[in-house]
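Figure 2 data, in text form.
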Amino acid sequence: MFSNEAVNLALLKARAYNLRWATVKDGVIPLTAADPDFPCAPEISEAICSYSKDRYFSYSHPEGLPEFKESIANYYIQKRDVPVSPAHAFPVDSAAYGIYLTCKAFLKSGDEAIIFDPVDFLFRYSIETVGATAISFSIPPGSFNIDFLDLEKLITKNTKMICLCNPLNPTGKVFSKQELLRLGTIACKYNLIILSDEIWSDIVFKPNVFTSIASLNSDIRNKTITVTGFSKSYGLAGLRIGAVIAPNDSYFSKLMDASLHQSTVHGANILSQIAATTALTKCQYWLDDFLVHLTKMRDITVKELNAIPNFECIAPQGCYVAFTNIKATQKTSQEIQDILLNKAKVLVVPGLKQWFGDGAEGYIRMSFATSEEILTDALSRIKKAML
């Protein structure tokens, strides 16, 4: 399923946008947006076709299809040890919208929300779009200790939320149970909402183990809004489908009111809900095989990057992106991206503030969710360009 022959470059060049194959010149390998080069599990397309053959595409329930809600709840109960009620889980048109929606529902002008640095830009974007202020807290890559005393010092009377991205994009850090307990305890102490982005939670490399912060205890769970999606685990980015899980009726009502789902201004595509439900109920085998492949690709990527002079890559604990320290080159992240694009014909994501925050400067990020043949070609090109 994850061989080079499984990658349909012709289709990718026609359909894969967002800095990927459809946006680069011929001959360029894009190791950019975290979106697999492989087709999804066949059961997903079969389910979409089966639903479509009856030719009825009526409005869905604004709170989501019952089978979608059940599948999300069952997944979190069985896989994450979180007692989720189907009534409190609902679909949104992407995990990105789920992050924005949570900020819209719980933040206002003058509020502050703590985000990690580096982290995906969507947190800062969502917070600032609703008029609040994003406060950055540095999280070192790898297994280095987190200074939770420094985190507490950032909390003011205006702080309303802590944004958790676990596993952490772009560094690939998977937070330990002890770290999450410290974070959750601080949130409870200061009555802060925890926005937990868990879109990467299926992509975790052994021996690391993912823990949902809502699984720790009831106090932390009642402060946590969980957002997840299906683009990373199952290759469904273009279907625009994610889920938001509220811990109680009060939070659920606020989220639904802010979502505008009741008005039909917003809402999740019904075919996307069918696809996501199928992914959760029938495609675990596909995800298991994908993880086996990704583990091999991660090991190849880390080994080859660390063999390049002045490159240093800590093996990601989760996520299928490699976050490489290039500070020893004495060039900026943007300069390295330009060199690799022009000399190696490989496109990577530079560690710019607009993508990941101030803490990303001096790094580049590259996705390894592709075939071994494509990946080794790209890494060979990078090595030659940097020698």
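Caption note: The first helix runs from residue 9 to 15.
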